[in-house]
Amino acid sequence: MANELGRSTSPYLRQHADNPVAWREWSERAFAEARERDVPIFLSVGYSACHWCHVMAHESFEDAETAAYLGAHFVSVKVDREERPDVDAIYMSATVAMTGQGGWPMSVFLTPAGEPFFCGTYFPKDSRGGMASFRQVLEAITDAWQNRREQLDGIGKRVVEQLGAQQPAGEEAFDLDRAVELLKTDFDPVDAGFGRAPKFPPSMVLDFLLRHHRRTGDEDALAMVAHTCDRMARGGMYDQLAGGFARYSVDGQWIVPHFEKMLYDNALLLDVYTHWWTLSGDPLARRVAEETADFLLAELRTPEGGFASALDADTEGEEGKYYVWTPDELRQVLGDEADWVISLCDVTGTFEHGTSVLQLRQDPDDVERWGRVRSVLARARSARTYPGRDDKVVAAWNGLAVTALARAGVVFDRPQYVEGAVGAARLIRDVHVEGGRLYRTSRDGVRGSADGVLEDYAAFAQGCLTLLGATGDDGWFRVAEGLLDRVLEQFVADGAYFDTAADAEQLVWRPQDATDNATPSGVSLAAEAFTTLASLTGSERYEAAAQQALNASATIAARAPRFAGRALAIADTIAGAPLEIAIVTTASAAEPAGWELLRVAFADAPWGTAIASGAPGAEVPLMAGRGLIGGVAAAYVCQKFTCRLPVTLPEHLRRELRPAD
């Protein structure tokens, strides 16, 4: 039996192509092999930037004896959770239900019918601290399979029955003021963020709080955002040399990160810092937003124009090695400047083995000096071995990046950000979409085989609708409408949204998860995209689809608002009676008069406002019958397609959008 991962398009799976384990990709053929041999399946799920995935691979999957035992008693299947979020969601639900916790690597043992009967995460090679070794687990499961088979089959069937039962949509109304009060009780007033260590960037909750502040004037909501954004950007979780955020902070003070950098985090945080700047004008917000956008373009953009999924935490087998410094290393690079930097950046052994992550807890007293030093350190760091990059392109995460870059590009007058967004959207449109069907991943311009899930359709559709406003190209409107029509055809059944399409691969149950976690849930993204599409078309069908999607998150929002941030943000937008803005230009959205109106629209309208732009005659319902005024670009501010008098000057549009200022 040979390892079959060398043919995969997933960089994570290809990392395991040289393992002695006879890995199979997730496929019907793997399950058929298990049925034919009458052995269980060992399912290992991870992702390329996962530190403990690498540890378990080194300890167990590179071990010839372990591989031989797996080959004799199991069919071993490896899954990239980023490529198959549907598989990951199903078996993570089982893992959490059976063990009370989850994480990656996820290690699940299945019957040949795909039913889980034993779950775990990382297992060490040698037993320690009361934790069984991986070999002990394998031997115990083999014994149970051979001697207590009926018991294992029964467990698997019960798990599928219980977790596969469709959850009814929430009937509770969104109480946005109460959600803010609940978030206050979770807020850390000293170090900011929510809850205790480890602390993850609460991007979607911050987005909701910003929208809520804009609608209601709630200063506490804005203060929670400002404190959190400030602490995240000044700590070690933010790369002070090259921009971009790591996955999370292992401590409660945002000092030491878990070093992998994910596309989705940086796309979501770029949008938050841009949004924060539009409401506060804080120079830190603009600096971090622009540096994060620059990071996306410089370090995650692929040759085909899309954005890679992640940068690894590890370099040369050591976590964080690329990013950390000792005082001696700084002195070697900076000479007499080193002591100033050691004090400024808190180089006091904050990480391991006397190394530190650079922080910037306060603005430097000499900004130009810091700029020079920062450039010297960045050049010196670039000579180190660069972290591995997972260069698969994920449709959903690229959709998030398209939205964030397009908004930031217009708001900050950085056309290169809009161009980057267009490049990524073209790749998804041209490579991932075929016959109206969206595929989740590609690599090196070659489409993967995994079907797109709800988050892929909705996030990319929202990105296209954002590009409609930023570029004036109504072709993006048609792409988005086609994708969202397919969502209604394939992802909605019996009044509920599902994460997989009706015509996709049938798994042991059909997943539907309304939780906004590391990324927005598919159903929250659908609520956002349908809200935008309804505003651009006036369609009651799309408006109803948005409300139906939002209803799925109502119960979570009422009980645990930290895990419904995107849904709450959309609910807050709807509560404010969302605007529509049509900007009619003489040629393209980039012509000077139209561009200045666009900048005001994106920066001064409430976040979530549907914005369309283009020349007269653009094939977007909101643009119909709206023309130039006196031969120059004009902006129409509307609600439910009832528009105020058009304006041609940016300052007049700003007064329309911020009458109290």
Fold and architecture overview:
- The chain contains 25 helices and 22 strands.
- The protein is of the alpha+beta class and 661 residues long.
- The protein is globular and about 85 Å long.
- β17 and β18 form a beta hairpin.
- The chain starts with 10 loop residues before the first helix and ends with a helix.
- α17 (415-432) packs across α18 (454-471).
- 49% of the residues lie in helices and 11% in strands.
Find the count of extended strands (DSSP E, 2+ residues).
22
Please identify the structural class as seen in this structure. alpha+beta
Estimated helix fraction:
40-55%
Taking the sheet with the most strands, its summary is: 5 strands, mixed
Mean pLDDT: 95
Distance between the termini: 71 Å
Give the overall silhouette: globular
Per DSSP, the total helix count is 25
Low-confidence stretches: none
The radius of gyration is 25 Å
- The fraction of residues assigned to DSSP E strands is 5-15%
Order of strands, widest sheet: 1-3-2-4-5
Brief summary:
This protein is an alpha+beta fold and 661 residues long. The protein is 49% helix and 11% strand.
